[in-house]
Write a structure and sequence with these properties.
Strand order of the largest sheet: 3-2-1-4-5-6-7
Bound molecules: 5-O-phosphono-beta-D-ribofuranosylamine
Number of helices: 7
Order of helices and strands: EHEHEHHEHEHEEH
Distance between the termini: 11 Å
Mean pLDDT: 96
Largest sheet: 7 strands, mixed
CATH superfamily: Formyl transferase, N-terminal domain
Strand content: 15-25%
CATH architecture: 3-Layer(aba) Sandwich
Radius of gyration: 16 Å
Length: about 190
């Protein structure tokens, strides 16, 4: 049985999609969800599936306390699904090419500092881009600059709010992220 460890800080809709996918395709399972936000929606979602939730605070992450905890789950892949802190390099170094992230835009556009969540979609709207999309990439110490694994585009020229763009992008995320993870685990 392949093991996944997820890191998330938010609502957890991607984590939910991943957990559900691997209940249907049970050659892998989500062994644990790590979060820096005990009050985040992802905590209730994971607990609802009986999946262990580990609270990893900013200081835990910065002082190297999290790697040993991750190792206990023996992950084949570490998946960042809306994790908003800088991912510790000790974990990246311990799991080379085994840490991936999803970004709600077509990197390298709209990546880097401050480019997360609704900010990304607001910038797309302000720049009147006609399309956006998702990027699934390896995580290295420069965060959004790791090698691209997968990208998918969606037209947004008819959108007139960042929320509308976000909804289209999230639909792509939920559709593709579990499939890309499954491919990487095979
Ligand atoms: C997603 O839009 C993802 O692209 C970004 O963070 C968001 C997480 O959303 N990295 P959710 O918590 O999975 O609903």
């Amino acid at each position: 049985m392949k093991k996944l460890v997820l890191f998330a800080s938010g609502a957890g809709s991607n984590a939910d999609a991943i957990i559900r996918y691997f209940k249907e395709n049970a050659f892998a399972e989500v062994a644990a969800v790590f979060t820096n936000k005990p009050e985040a929606g992802v905590v209730q979602k994971a607990r609802g599936y009986g999946i262990p939730v580990v609270i990893a605070t900013k200081s835990d992450l910065e002082n190297g306390n999290v790697l040993a905890h991750v190792n206990q789950f023996k992950p084949d892949l570490i998946v960042l699904a809306g994790f908003l802190l800088k991912f510790p390099t000790d974990i990246i170094n311990a799991y080379p090419n085994k840490v991936i992230n999803i970004h709600p835009a077509l990197l390298p556009k709209y990546g880097g500092k401050g480019m997360y969540g609704i900010n990304v979609h607001r910038a797309i709207l302000e720049n009147r881009d006609i399309e956006t999309g998702i990027s699934i990439h390896y995580v290295n110490e420069h965060y959004d600059e790791g090698g691209i694994i997968f990208q998918e585009r969606v037209g947004v020229s008819d959108c007139d709010s960042p929320e509308q763009i976000a909804a289209r992008v999230q639909k792509l995320e939920h559709e593709h992220f579990p499939l890309i993870i499954a491919q990487l685990l095979k």
